[in-house]
Design goal:
It is a single chain. It is built from 3 helices and 4 strands; from the N terminus they run βαββααβ. α1 packs antiparallel against α3.
């Protein structure tokens, strides 16, 4: 399994309605992109100085699934919106290991 984590720090001038649109578009990827095994997305609750505004965790079966997601038109649309309203976006991708 491959985990894809993305966090967005929105620009201060971005209104809540636009932030909610972004999160809604992210959530709409479920059922639209078949390679997504699971997707969790939400707004930060703590609002610490180090916090990002929105976070997403997506899980794929393998690297090929992530690559299919990256080029999917629905992902491209929401990724472009996310970049356009953010002052910073960060991501990490890793394979999940089991620890017994």
């Amino acid at each position: 399994m491959l985990t894809h984590i993305v966090v967005w720090k929105y620009r201060v001038d971005i209104e809540q309605e636009v932030r909610e649109e972004h999160v809604g578009l992210l959530r709409s990827l479920v059922g639209t992109i078949p390679e997504l095994v699971s997707l969790s997305v939400g707004f930060d609750l703590l609002r610490l100085p180090r916090s990002y505004d929105t976070g997403m965790v997506a899980v794929f079966r393998d690297h090929a699934g992530l690559q299919a997601y990256i080029i999917h038109p629905a992902h491209i649309r929401v990724a472009e919106l996310g970049r356009s309203i953010s002052e910073h976006v960060a991501s990490v991708d890793f394979e999940v290991e089991s620890f017994a």
